[in-house]
Design brief:
Layout (H helix, E strand, L loop, with lengths): L2 E2 L18 H11 L8 E2 L6 H4 L5 H9 L4 H7 L5 H24 L1 E4 L20 H11 L6 E5 L6 H6 L6 E8 L12 E5 L5 H19 L3 E5 L17 H17 L4 E4 L8 H19 L2
Length: 300
């Protein structure tokens, strides 16, 4: 099993920034400490090339990122101040997702400690996302003819609006999103299948909706690979999530996804997505549970 991780994932931010960047350092450390993974399973992705990125993002936007010419308004929409290091970070994350997807095609599953940057559009970024790593990876696999059909299962509490828009007219990538109906982004794009969730939804209701959807989804799409965005901002402890899913329920969600995919011999590339619980241990524990579920079910 391969896990994409690089020190550049933990990018320095202004003091009191609301994005929990430290989690990218703590997740692999906890997995190693608990003996869930070994150091040999971690690998350092190289930055994605411009040619690869331009399969998904516009040349004008890519030029802005490389020349550091995003306007103050564009930077505010993203939520991070621009810097060459931030652009490089996103390039490394995108290549990490490509690498784990290629590994999953051969070995069943692969993980990226970061990724799930689903609010990035072809021509702009927003919501802490500059480059859309799932879109970059899916387009790369299609371009290289490694796959014919991809499925994005996005279970972050926030709709993958960038991903939905990027693949709105692409029959080779099917987008599925279960997300808060009244949460960011407040203007939703149209995925191939959206399930909006009511504020305050409990664990049992959430899991029942997902359990009903997954078999129909797999039967409808018959994907060669699934890109799974396992955001943990569905937790009741999340500051922005508005749902009432427990830690156990979040882990059961991951197990449900992995069991369904494994049953149908579908490779899975997993990225962590969001999580904004008050205590970072709740975020890290939930992300680590995703790794534990995938490792257990895929038989590593």
């Amino acid at each position: 099993m391969k896990i994409a991780y690089h020190d550049i994932y933990t990018h320095p931010l202004p003091e009191d920034h609301r994005f929990p960047m430290l989690k990218y350092e703590l997740i692999p450390a906890q997995l190693l400490r608990e003996g869930v993974i070994t150091a040999g399973q971690l690998f350092l992705p190289a930055p994605a090339t411009a040619d690869t990125i331009l399969l998904t993002h516009t040349a004008a936007y890519w030029q802005q990122l490389t020349d550091q010419t995003l306007s103050p308004r564009e930077q505010r929409k993203i939520g991070f101040p621009q810097s060459p290091a931030l652009t490089l970070r996103e390039m490394v994350i995108a290549q990490g997702t490509i690498d784990i997807a290629l590994h999953a095609l051969e070995h069943g599953i692969g993980f990226n400690v970061a990724g799930g940057t689903h609010h990035a559009f072809a021509d702009h970024g927003e919501g802490f996302c500059l480059l859309n790593d799932f879109a970059v990876a899916a387009n790369y696999l299609l371009h290289q003819q490694h796959i014919k059909q991809a499925l994005v299962i996005d279970l972050d509490v926030h709709q993958g609006n960038g991903t939905a828009a990027l693949f709105a007219n692409n029959a080779h990538v099917y987008t599925f999103s279960m997300h808060g109906a009244h949460n960011y982004p407040f203007h939703k794009e149209v995925s191939d299948w959206d399930i909006p969730l009511a504020d305050g939804m409990d664990t049992a209701t959430y899991l029942r909706l997902l359990e009903d959807a997954l078999p129909a989804l797999i039967n409808r799409v018959k994907p060669d690979i699934v890109f799974y965005l396992s955001g943990v901002d569905i937790l009741s402890t999340d500051k922005f999530g508005k749902l009432k899913v427990t830690q156990q329920g979040c882990q059961e969600r991951d197990e449900m996804v992995f069991r369904e995919l494994k049953k149908h011999h579908i490779p899975c590339a997993v990225a962590m997505g969001g999580g904004y619980s008050t205590h970072i241990r709740d975020i890290v524990n939930a992300h680590c549970n995703t790794f534990k579920a995938g490792i257990s079910i895929y038989g590593y």
